[in-house]
Amino acid sequence: MTEMKATEDLLAACQSGDSEALQLLFEKHQRRVYSIALNFFGGDGETAKDATQQVFLKLFVKIGQFRNDSEFTTWLYRIVVNTCIDEQRKQKRFFPLAELIGMREPRVKKTQEEKIERRELSDEVQSAVADLKPKLRLPILLKYVEGLSYDEIANVLEISSGTVASRLNRGHKALAKKLGHLREG
């Protein structure tokens, strides 16, 4: 059975209310959804977990609305993108109390210097990506984390391929500016 046929069968079972099929769908896409959310929120695992839960709640409620007009993953990415943007809007309305009073969790230092440097570099890059405006951040994440083509990104974000190229270019420039000091070191 081909992958496409297997996915179609799984979706049909989900749409008919098969709880085992819903569980399989969740297991198949959970890591991918979490990865996008984690990168969107700059490595904030708790917020990414919350967003992932929201995505699958929405997915399970709306699975009957999927009409095979596009690939399932495109439809799923659209839900992920919208959920992350909605969650970010909610967060902007509230001040993070732990950050205000300086009670952030201490980072556990690893024993090997290379691992520490690599993690710091990763954190810095993740932070720079998280600081981008969503319209620049999302194409970057979909391209480099998920490996989507320009056309796939255009479908997910409901924009033209030319706009994808433009936003990726602007995102690259913004990241180069924010992370330029890393080249010097």
Strand tally: 0
**Roughly how many Å is the radius of gyration?**
19 Å
* CATH superfamily grouping of the largest domain: RNA polymerase sigma factor, region 2, helix turn helix motif
CATH class of the largest domain: Mainly Alpha
Strand coverage percent: under 5%
User: What about the largest sheet?
Assistant: none
What spatial form do the alpha-carbon principal axes imply? globular
Helix-and-strand structural type: mainly alpha
User: What low-confidence regions span 5 or more consecutive residues with pLDDT below 50?
Assistant: 94-104, 106-110
Helical amount among residues, as a percent range? over 70%
What is the domain total for the residues?
2
Assembly level: single chain
What do these coordinates show?
It is a single chain. The chain is an all-alpha fold and 185 residues long. It folds into two domains: 1-95, Rna Polymerase Sigma Factor, Chain: A, CATH 1.10.1740.10; 112-185, Winged helix-like DNA-binding domain superfamily/Winged helix DNA-binding domain (Arc Repressor Mutant, subunit A, Orthogonal Bundle). It is 76% helix and 0% strand. The chain has nine helices and no strands. The chain has helices at 3-15, 19-40, 45-62, 72-92, 97-100, 113-131, 134-144, 150-157, 161-184. Helix 1 (3-15) packs across helix 2 (19-40), helix 3 (45-62) packs across helix 4 (72-92) and helix 4 packs across helix 8. The radius of gyration is 19 Å and the shape is globular. The termini are far apart. Residues 94-104 and 106-110 have low confidence and may be disordered.
